[in-house]
Write a structure and sequence with these properties.
about 280 residues, alpha/beta, Rossmann fold, 2 domains, two-stranded antiparallel ribbon, 11 helices
């Protein structure tokens, strides 16, 4: 009995999910590119693979995010394992990483050669994408990553082991476990969606951990308030706090940083032109 071809599998899948998702899922399953499966629509798929593809299509039709179906998402040129306990990595978070790396480079230039090992703190690390990427791009830095979710920390530690990134992970609610330790740069992509935002019950967000999306505050800023208020205690003189936030929160975050007596406060736009990351410096 003849098996299923790539073309037949895609044709069936596109009855229930978007064409791009179908092509991406099948190319991942077959270990090839989307262009290849389109060009070789007569390629035979073995029965086990065809069955798995149908399961994936059914999961996507139910709304499950592609990244959770595959258990992986690319970020900053590397593949990170993800599951239902962590946020799916988003392109805008690369803006946070880029700003952190630029600040690390500048901070190093201000230090003597014997004292250029910087310490970096990532608050609410989730799958570890920010902490691990910073460590791999700036390997001479000490990186500490914190999360209050044991399940998220398991995911982050697994990613760090896979990618050979020596990051120190701590189970803590923001600064609670740091015992006064100070850092040159603090970064965070905290929960910032307002509790009544209708997007929380739509699309992929329905499948992501609610505690990573919203802190249940009306304006989505409770976590950012806590992080900003405690930053000066855990920043070294001239150290920087860098926060990712929502599309309409930049002005509010700038005001919180000013209230925390941070200086040189500035917001950076992401590739979509949205003010996405706000930074402030502890005075010397």
């Amino acid at each position: 009995m003849p098996g299923t071809t790539v073309g037949e599998a895609l044709s069936d899948a596109k009855r229930s999910i978007e064409r791009r998702d179908a092509e991406y899922l099948l190319s991942h399953l077959l270990g090839t590119s989307r262009a290849s499966i389109i060009a070789h629509s007569d390629r035979q798929i073995d029965p086990a693979a065809a069955a798995r593809f149908r399961q994936w299509v059914a999961a996507r039709a139910d709304g499950k995010p592609v990244a959770q179906i595959l258990g992986v998402r690319e970020f900053y040129g590397r593949d990170f394992a993800i599951d239902e306990h962590v946020l799916i990595p988003r392109p805008e978070t690369e803006t946070l990483v880029e700003q952190a790396l630029a600040r690390i480079s500048k901070q190093k230039s201000l230090k003597t050669p014997a004292n250029r090992r910087l310490s970096i703190l990532d608050l609410g690390t989730g799958s570890g994408i920010v902490a691990i990427t910073v460590k791999l791009e700036a390997p001479d830095c000490e990186v500490v990553a914190i999360d209050a979710s044991a399940a998220a920390l398991r995911n982050a530690r697994a990613n760090a082991a896979t990618l050979n990134a020596p990051v120190r992970f701590l189970d803590s609610n923001w600064y609670g476990a740091l015992d006064g330790q100070c850092f040159d740069v603090i970064v965070s992509n905290p929960p910032y969606v307002a509790v009544d935002d209708p997007h929380l019950s739509r699309g992929d967000l329905r499948f992501e951990p609610m505690m990573a999306l919203t802190d249940q505050s009306p304006d989505g800023l409770a976590s950012i308030r806590a992080i900003t208020a405690g930053a000066s205690v855990h920043l070294r003189p001239n150290g920087w706090l860098m926060l990712e936030h929502g599309y309409n929160q930049a002005e509010a975050v700038r005001q919180l940083m000013y209230a925390a007596r941070l200086t040189a406060v500035q917001s950076t736009r992401d590739l979509a032109g949205i003010e996405r990351v706000t930074s402030g410096q502890r005075p010397a």
